[in-house]
Amino acid sequence: MAAYPSQPNPLALLLLASLVVAVAGNFYQDVDITWGDGRGKILNNGNLITLSLDKASGSGFQSKNQYLYGKFDIQLKLVPGNSAGTVTTFYFHSQGSSWDEIDFEFLGNLSGDPYLVHTNIYTQGKGNREQQFYLWFDPTADFHTYSILWNPGHIVFYVDRRPIREFKNLESIGVPYPKSQPMVMYASLWDADDWATRGGLVKTDWSKAPFTASFRNFNSNACIWSNGASSCSNSANQWSSEELDSTSQKLLKWVQKNYMVYNYCTDTKRFPQGLPQECTVINKN
Fold it and tell me: Which Enzyme Commission number(s) are on file for it (predicted)?
């Protein structure tokens, strides 16, 4: 059993008490399994997807729809035991060479060591905006909810409704922001033992294969993009102008203080010519 910290302070409960649970869709209606040669399975009348990985291949699925802004939830139960070298993903990606992307990646580890939650944001084909976190629970023991809010003002990553990262729209100071390219939701389980665990020092133990991750309750409260047009106007959706209130901001700072293990905005060795422009704003907060 991994050594996970104790549950957070009562501040977290204040946020949870104010939540409204959305109704999730059905995987048969919402997604297509796109690769894995049978290693991805839709089960339980469309309410569950399992993705598996063995030495021959991983597996993955993607949404049938494209989205331009929205609030998205999915519940995951990650690969248990020795998951070193494996990567489970939940992310959004547009097409083309100057793509936009919003990433949740879960980097496996040896039994007893915690998962690493790797987040990144690409704008116009440029990423290098990694922030990484440990979790305050064992993500392999049960399902937990991972969410992305993407609206014109900011992108927020959530774990069990707690914000862990915010990327603000800072176009006013010249930082590109994902605002015009519709994205597809992707999820996958694949092998990346050349970098995933301790920088590639720990390799995948194939004697433990197949590795399996489970997904359920994908919910998209979003604007669907079809035939060059959006299905909704931003003003028609509460999430389109949703901001972090004071409680959420305190939670965000609490998570980042206690569980963030890497922040590109403090990595001066990586950026000897100067930190990315948005870091001047991020580091002030």
Answer: 2.4.1.207
